[in-house]
C-alpha cells in the first residue's frame, strides 16, 4: 500500500514540474519577442513632432544626431516597427531602419521571474493539499473511534454470567446481551483509513455479534509488544505465538499472533473464530478483548487480543515453582473452575461448542488462581443433535497427543465425550503432577492414562502411588481413595 501511495505522489510531482516547465517556456517565448531596438535615419532634419506622431506610433523614438542627416534610436514592441518611406510621399518619415531583437539577458530574467512565481504557487498548493489531508485523517480517526467498535470492552460479572449452576447458565443463554455490528464480508481491507470508512458507509454487509470488541491496528499491537520481541513471548502453539503486551492505557494484554495461512478460506476461518469468541461470556473462559486484521507489507496479519492471565497455564504451574506450593484445595478449585468452563461450552453457549483441544496448557489462571479455558482455534460448533458442524465424514485428527480419547483415535471423529476424556487427563495431571506423556524406563508407562489406570483400579495403590509427592500427604485420604479428586463434586461435564 505504501508503494502505491509513493508512486501516486511521484506521478503528481512530475506532472506539476512538467506543467511548470511548459508554462515557463511559453511565457518566456512571448517575453523574448519584446523590446526591438532600431537605428533609423531620415533624409533630412524634419519636424520632430511630425515624425514622432506619424512615423513611430508603436515605438519610442528619439533623435540621436549624426553627420549625414538625422539619426533616430527607437525601442519598439513586438507588434510594431518604425514606418519607413516607400515613396516620394513619405519622405518626411525614416528612409531606412536597422532593427535587432532584445538581448538574451532580458529573456532569461523574464523566465526566472515567471518560474519563481509558479514555484510559489505550487508550494502553496502543496501546503493546502497537505493541510486538507491532515484534517481528513483526523476526521476519519474520530469517525472510527466513535463508530467502528472503538469503545471500552464490557464484561459480565461472575454473577451475571451465572458460574454456579447449569440451570442459571441455560437461562442466561436466552437473556439479552449487548450487541455490536462488525463487517463480515471483508475483515482484511488492503486500503485503510478513510477508504475503510468509505466502504463501511457504502452499506457493507454486517452481522450481529454478542459482546463488545476493540478493533486494533497492527502498529498499536506492535508497539504494545515491543515489536513482538522475544522477551515478551509467553506462549507458542502449533499455528500461533502469544506475546505479553501493554496498551497505551496501561492495561496488560495477551496478543496472539497467528502464523500466515494461505488459501482462499484463511480470512473466513479467522472471521469465524472471532465471531465464535465474541459470543462467549463466562467467568471460566478467557475473554476476547479485540482483534486486528490488516495487510502489513506483503503479508496479512491476523491477531487476537485476550485478557492477560498473570499466573500462566496449568501445566507450567505444575512443572514450576508454583507446583511446589500448590495445595490440594487449590487444585480442587482449579478442577471445578475448568469443569464449569467446559460445561458452559458444551451445554450453555450459543451455539454449543466442542473444544477439541482440552489440555492443561489451555487452562490459564488469573491472579486469584481462577481457572479459565482458552485457545478455541480448533473448536467446532455443535448442531442440535450434538454432532459437530461439517462433520459428515471423518476429518484428520486434531489435538494433542496424550489427550486423545480411544474412540477419537480409532475413527478420527471428535465428540462431547472426547472432550470429557481429555478433561479427565487434566484431572490426573492435577492429582499426580505428572505430564500426559512421561519419559519412563518401564515400558507402557509413558502415557499418564496407562500409568494411572492400574493404580486407580487397585485401592491399595491409590494413596501411596497416585497423589503428587509434593503434596506431602496433605489431602483427604479417604475421599481420594473413594472418589479421586472431586472432593466437592465436579459437575458431570457433557453428561
From TrEMBL:
**E.C. code:** 2.7.11.1
Pfam families from the entry? PK_Tyr_Ser-Thr
Q: Where is the signal peptide?
A: 1-24
Describe the reaction catalysed, as an equation.
Answer: L-seryl-[protein] + ATP = O-phospho-L-seryl-[protein] + ADP + H(+); L-threonyl-[protein] + ATP = O-phospho-L-threonyl-[protein] + ADP + H(+)
Q: What class of enzyme is it?
A: transferase
Keyword annotations from UniProtKB, A to Z: ATP-binding, Kinase, Membrane, Nucleotide-binding, Receptor, Serine/threonine-protein kinase, Signal, Transferase, Transmembrane, Transmembrane helix
Residues holding ATP: 256
For molecular function, the Gene Ontology terms on record are:
ATP binding; protein serine/threonine kinase activity
Database matches in InterPro entries: Kinase-like_dom_sf (IPR011009), Prot_kinase_dom (IPR000719), Protein_kinase_ATP_BS (IPR017441), Ser-Thr/Tyr_kinase_cat_dom (IPR001245), Ser/Thr_kinase_AS (IPR008271)
Which residues span the membrane? 118-143
* Protein kinase domain span: 228-495
Which family is this sequence assigned to?
Belongs to the protein kinase superfamily.
Q: Which PANTHER family match?
A: OS01G0750732 PROTEIN, RECEPTOR-LIKE SERINE_THREONINE-PROTEIN KINASE NCRK ISOFORM X1
Output this protein's name.
non-specific serine/threonine protein kinase
Q: What is the lineage of its organism?
A: Eukaryota, Viridiplantae, Streptophyta, Embryophyta, Tracheophyta
